[in-house]
Amino acid sequence: MTTQHVRLTVNGEVREADVEPRLLLVHLLRDVFLLTGTHIGCDTSNCGACTIHVNGQSAKSCTMLAVQADGAEIRTIEGMADGATLHPLQQAFWDQHGLQCGFCTPGMIMQAAWLLDQNEKPSEAEIRHGISGNLCRCTGYVNIVKAIQQASGQLGTGDSARVEAAGTVEATAAS
């Protein structure tokens, strides 16, 4: 069995591995580097659960070979928070209840982060277009869109349902 050595920077940390040339990047991240926040949903790039950033660009890691990422800068959902402080998108998904089962959430947040890097104040239509390659089978995308609007500064935390620490949902009025 032939292997190839890869070296990449993942969430700011240089990581190396010897991989089979056919190993998908998603499997390198999950199975070798143990970064399980990147999910595998379809293996065909249709669902977007595996979305990460490669050299600052949104990419679906289930259709990219690990050897293609050699030398790349990779950012996964694990690299979004700053210690115990959630990234503004993670906080917005919490505040706006932009998740249900949570399976699509890491990929959705990574895609939304890329979208906001490209356009700081996208319209609702631009948000919906920007996340159209990421599927959520639980929601109607309304709260996901609200979460992205909140992270972009277009919507406050009190403009929707707020999830309390005790796990109850409390309706709040816009200020």
Could you characterize what this model shows?
- By secondary structure, this protein is α+β, with helices and mostly antiparallel strands.
- It has 2 domains: 4-79, Beta-grasp domain (Ubiquitin-like (UB roll)); 88-171, [2Fe-2S]-binding domain (DNA polymerase, domain 1, Orthogonal Bundle).
- Helix content is 27%, strand content 18%.
- It contains 5 helices and 7 strands, in the order E-E-H-E-E-E-H-H-H-H-E-E.
- The strands form 2 sheets. It has a 5-stranded mixed sheet with strand order 2-1-5-3-4, sandwiched between helices. Strands 6-7 form a two-stranded antiparallel ribbon.
- A hairpin with a 2-residue loop joins strand 3 and strand 4 (57-60).
- The protein is elongated.
- It starts with a strand and ends with a strand.
CATH topology of the largest domain: DNA polymerase, domain 1
Let me know the CATH homologous superfamily of the largest domain.
Answer: [2Fe-2S]-binding domain
The main β sheet shows up as: 5 strands, mixed
- What is the tally of beta strands? 7
Low-confidence stretches: 161-175
Number of domains: 2
Oligomer: single chain
* N to C succession of SSEs: EEHEEEHHHHEE
**H/I helix tally:** 5
Percentage of residues in strands: 15-25%
Strand order, largest beta sheet: 2-1-5-3-4
The N- to C-terminal Cα distance equals 63 Å
Helix content: 25-40%
Cα Rg: 17 Å
Shape: elongated
What structural class should be given to the helix and strand makeup?
alpha+beta
Shape-level CATH architecture of the largest domain: Orthogonal Bundle
Average of per-residue pLDDT values: 90
CATH class categorisation of the largest domain: Mainly Alpha
